[in-house]
Amino acid sequence: MDEQATSSKVIMSGMRQLEIRTRRMVNDSLAGAYHSVFKGRGMDFDEVREYSPGDEVRTIDWNVTARAGRPFVKKFTEERELTIFLLVDISASGNFGSGLASKRDLAAELASVLAFSAIRNSDKVGLLLYTDQIERYLPPKKGRRHVLRVVRDILYHAPLAVGTDTVKALDLANRLLHRRAIVFLISDFETGGDATSARAMLRRAMRRTNRRHDLIAVHINDAREKELPDVGIIALEDAESGEIIELDTGNAAVRKRFKEQSSRRDLQLVSDFRSEGIDTLQLQTDAPYMPALQRFFKTRERRRL
Q1: 56 neighbors 98 (Cβ within 8 angstroms)
Q2: Beta carbons within 10 angstroms of residue 219's beta carbon
Q3: Given the DSSP bridges, would you call strands 214-221 and 279-284 parallel, antiparallel or unpaired?
Q4: Are residues 188 and 295 in the same domain?
Q5: CA–CA separation, 19 vs 42, rounded Å?
Q6: Which of 53, 79, 105 finishes a domain?
Q7: Residue 272 belongs to what domain range?
Q8: What is the pLDDT of residues 118-161, one digit of tens each?
């Protein structure tokens, strides 16, 4: 019981620190950006008012104008409420981190920023955690308590499996979300098996989701997975498949080949995102994520002007 109480205190303390840090980032760095980038689903009729010079002629309400004998225009307001849906990969490869933070830690912090930005604008937030099976689903809701539960689950949920099946997660999200949503797919996009087949299946799944929703791919990387250090012979274990291979990192040709293969995979992934018209945010565990997030928002905002 004491251990359980201690564990709960540690979780609550970690949650509180994360909330304070990410709320400050939302208020200081993303004020207004979120609202500008993510528009509502359309415009709702609000009221009619008398015509003023400069009003659009096409907004004139001809029925009211005829009855009143002077021009009136229709006033519309943006249908603001949105749904932010966080689709987060918590497979075993996400536990890796060569610095202070793992890929999963970074995913949780980013999700926290997005979630607090959403509730600041009275939007709903939903969550789906997945490995090669569906681990946890929280329907979209509003409010601080709900957001804290979302972030807690991303940080502390103990996965039942270690593999990755992003296609299954995307397909389920399509079935669960009945109205258009902003879907953040947060993953390192590390998959096992036949890479060519897996890539084709992922593209089709992303295409289906992006047609129904606004899909944004957040690719989380760790520098150590992209380039080998010169430390002699090492054994590398795939966290998801358990496969172990030995590499002689003292061999410059081995290091070069590893780096080239990693770069090729990343370039193919970016190419796939662009081909499907999916916006992408690239993050590194060893670099601050806020500048990259701000650039992402600014790029989307310029494109929508």
Answers
A1: no
A2: 18
A3: parallel
A4: yes
A5: 31
A6: 79
A7: 81-304
A8: 888 889 999 999 999 999 999 999 988 998 899 889 888 999 99
Number of domains composing the chain: 2
> pTM of the prediction?
0.80
Of 60, 79, 98, the residue that ends a domain is: 79
